[in-house]
Amino acid sequence: MKLINREDWIGWKDLATPREGNTGKYEKYQDYLYELVSELKPNRILEVGFNAGHSACCFLNAYPNTELVSFDICRHGTEQPGVEALQNNGFNITLIEGDSVETIPPYFEENSNKFDFIFIDGHHAGEHPYYDMINTLPHLSINGIVVVDDYGIGGVAPSFKKISWNTYEELKVPSIEKRIKVLKKLR
Question: What CATH number has the domain spanning 23-185?
Fold first, then answer.
């Protein structure tokens, strides 16, 4: 079910079309994420992988009162203009530039924030997804939700399988264009 026309989202038309990766290409997927965030109403969202900002724009339109912290290596040239476009539209978003494996641990050494929603869509090769998961999951609130994007690509599935998910409930995902894992933290 289409919740809202993405062309009507605040800031959507201000975002660049990226050369690679783009959550914005998958309408059913974005509708699912939009509904998930609008129902959860997270105080804070952590995103690994900003790119041009399409997933961030989705989250911020689903629940505009949230604070979004995004980590991205910033190698495409679309990241800073995307963040500025969303900030100029009144959204509370911070971009932390650099390799997430190197930038997430120091962030949490300086910030004790808990996040209600974590979206992991960074570098998919090797053990990078594993480190994105182990570096962020301890900072997910109880009843918070984590979405692991692109489950079938690169090192994402092998990394996912290394994690102990015994304190999480896997949520059912409707038929969408992408393979993802969605889990709710129970304790």
Answer: 3.40.50.150
